[in-house]
Amino acid sequence: MLRWSPLSRTDKAPIKEKTPAEEAGFSKIGDRSRGGPSPQCHRRIPLDTPEQVFRRVGAPLGPYLAYMPDGEVGDRRYWIDGIAYRVFNGHPEIETLRRPAPDANGVENWRPLGMHDQFQFRVKPGVAQVRFGDPGWRLGYTKDAVGSHFVFRQLQKEGVIPPGVRFQVCLPLTFSAIGLYFPDPADHAKVAPGVTAAFRAEVAKMVELITPQELAIQWDLAVENRLVDTALAREGGPAAETLAARLVAPVADIAPAIPQEVALGYHGCFGTLSGWPSRQPTDLGGTVTLLNEAIAATGRRVDFLHLPTLGTADDAFFAPLERLRAPDAKVYLGAIHHMHDADGLRRQLQTVRRHLAEFGLAAPCGFGRAPERPGRLLTAEGSARRYTANLTRQRLGPQKHIFLL
Fold first, then answer.
1. What is the dihedral of CA 200, 229, 334, 61, to 10 degrees?
2. Confidence tier at 81 by pLDDT (50, 70, 90)
3. Whole-angstrom distance, CA of residue 188 vs CA of residue 209
4. What distances in angstroms separate CA 25 from CA 37, 224, 354, one per listed residue?
5. CATH fit for domain 19-96+122-403, picks 3.20.20, 3.30.110, 3.30.70, 1.20.58
6. Which residues contact 61 (CB under 8 A, 6 or more apart)?
């Protein structure tokens, strides 16, 4: 979420070499003379360790960031597949029906090649409710968060990460964690309560061990978004709203464990497993419906929302934004992506302004999983420079923000 404002140079002082972000007019944290920032770097960054992520992101983007994640490294690299591998697979009350195929040499593999290759499970006969032990630690997110936060704080002390930047944790909500893995819908009611309780325990342990004022939590709603989009297309608005309310109901159980001092947000998504976007809905109606229900279920302040976009500049795609009920949240659109033609981003943002008065810009879903991408995105030769230069040339307006997911 890098705030963008065009600059005009009238002084004759020597010109200091600028970063790509500065060339586009991005404001640094605390620079109120240029509008003030509200930046964030979100989710997947394809490196191997949190320290690599923090050093790679902290140096070029740190002055512009409000929140910084650890890049979803290790077995979170493929988002929820780590839960399938380390939590569901081998659980005594769950049977593994399918696992990702081995590689060409017959060596086992837990990372799927696509939707066709994912883990599949069922609840064992006679089990009424699947339970998860070791509360606060069983899902693995607390362990990773505490370890990454220690590295984060050390690099803040070194000056790599500026003071005031929050450490961000990204978590799948309950039905994103289970929806793709249990093909029998009857199993969902047997698994969901236990998973929700486990997430609540993980969040409670996180805020016990990480200072709340240093923490931001984002709930990722990719599977929920897909299900609501499908219901909207097949059954209409009322059915989609009913389904959305059911899918985000776990929020009401988890939110009380999140103190007000923790920044909280939601991420709508069109999916990335088979390459972004995994699907292309006709408009943002499903995403808006889902986020409205999530906000209503939360019972506390929601600080930010993220909605993806496609390559279209049609009014029909963005008209649902007028129905977004987010009085306290900053809204960011994932409009920085490869689907635009040469003038597509400018035309898309012109359309958005007719339906949403205040918004920021973002990539649709992280920096991806390809290891060569972070360097290209964060250097003068990369996509960040190309996109920000386009923003400058197209004079998109001083009120805009950039939210780098």
1. 20
2. confident
3. 31
4. 11, 36, 24
5. 3.20.20
6. 2, 21, 39, 41, 378, 404
- Model pTM? 0.82
CA–CA separation, 39 and 332 (whole Å): 11
Q: Report residue 39: phi and psi, to 5°.
A: -90, 160
Task: Give the integer Cα–Cα distance in Å for 112 and 16.
Answer: 47
Q: Which of 369 and 365 is assigned the larger pLDDT?
A: 365
Is the pLDDT assigned to residue 78 strictly greater than 50?
yes
Peptide bond into 277 cis (omega under 30): yes
* Three-state DSSP class for residue 342: coil
Q: How far is CA 345 from the centre of its chain?
A: 21
- Positive or negative: CA dihedral 4, 5, 8, 11: negative
3-state DSSP call for residue 404? strand
Pair of tokens at residue 213: 């004022």
The one-letter code for the residue type at 252 is A
What are the Cα distances from residue 207, in Å, to 65, 139, 165, 250, 384? Answer: 21, 16, 17, 19, 33
pLDDT of residue 22: 44
Question: 3-class SS at 294?
Answer: helix
CA distances from 180 to 95, 144, 199, 239, 359 (A): 15, 23, 18, 21, 32
How far is it, in rounded angstroms, from Cα 266 to Cα 157? 29
At 204, list the tokens: 């409670």
Could you read off the pLDDT of 273-287 as tens digits, one per residue? Answer: 656 677 789 999 999
